[in-house]
Amino acid sequence: MKVGLFVPCYIDQFYPSVGIATLQLLEKFGCDVHYPPDQTCCGQPMANSGFASLTHGCNQNFVKNFSGLDYIVAPSGSCVLHIKEHLHDDRNPEAAKEIRSRIFELTEFLTDILKVETVEARFPHRVGLHQSCHGQRMLHLASMSERVLPPFSKAEQLLKGVKGLELVKPARVDECCGFGGTFCVTEEAVSVAMGEDRVSEHEVNNVDYITGGDTSCLMHLEGILRRKKSCIKIIHLAEILAAQ
């Protein structure tokens, strides 16, 4: 299958290893991966700030770069959700509609489309999992504790097959880390307090790493960990699943 690799701007600029790991994973499972070099930001920061009307250029560029592919995959639940809910192009409405139905977050694509049962990875560390809000509550990548439904987590499903990895859950498995896009800028103090709460639960569990599917959330937690001079590191799910 012909798969377009969408690498969000903050991953491209700050965590390129996440994009590389995603590429390696997709190729490992037989995908014909295409990386459009002219791709840019999806426009989510503007939409989050109330300026969705100014994202026309981002939308048109996204449609131009990712049309004609079987699927589009990104290692970022929040950016995927933005495209699913907001992508539009008055000049190519059908192309935009097709993209909205064919874009997937990485773990969702691996479990639901490729039907991956084991990734043949090795990561001998004690790892805490952070379930990001966009992925969990909007993309349904994991169950929500307030709903009386059988628990599930697509990330956890994949991580359980990683050799040597000891997965440790925090007491409150689906609590927000406080990043929240532009919320961490407009409500800095509240955002930091929420992040510190998240970090403290992982510290109690004595983990070596905190992982998740959104680098934005992990970046927020990493900043708190660094200021505390903690030994805990952050790592994206893709990097664990691609580890040998």
Summarize this, please?
The protein has helices at residues 9-14, 16-28, 44-48, 56-66, 77-86, 93-102, 106-113, 133-138, 154-159, 183-186, 188-204, 215-227, 237-241, and strands at 2-5, 32-34, 71-74, 103-105, 126-130, 166-168, 209-212, 233-236. The chain is of the alpha/beta class and 244 residues long.
- Morphology call: globular
Strand content: 5-15%
Helix content: 40-55%
Oligomer: single chain
Largest sheet: 4 strands, parallel
Query: Structural class, judged by helices and strands?
Result: alpha/beta
Number of helices: 13
Q: Overall pLDDT, averaged? A: 94
Task: Going across the biggest sheet, name each strand in turn.
Answer: 2-1-3-4
Indicate the CATH class of the largest domain: Alpha Beta
Poorly predicted regions: none
SSE succession: EHHEHHEHHEHEHHEHHEHEH
Number of beta-strand segments: 8
Q: Radius of gyration, rounded?
A: 18 Å
Protein name: (Fe-S)-binding protein
Domain Cysteine-rich: 3-84, 127-221
GO molecular function: oxidoreductase activity
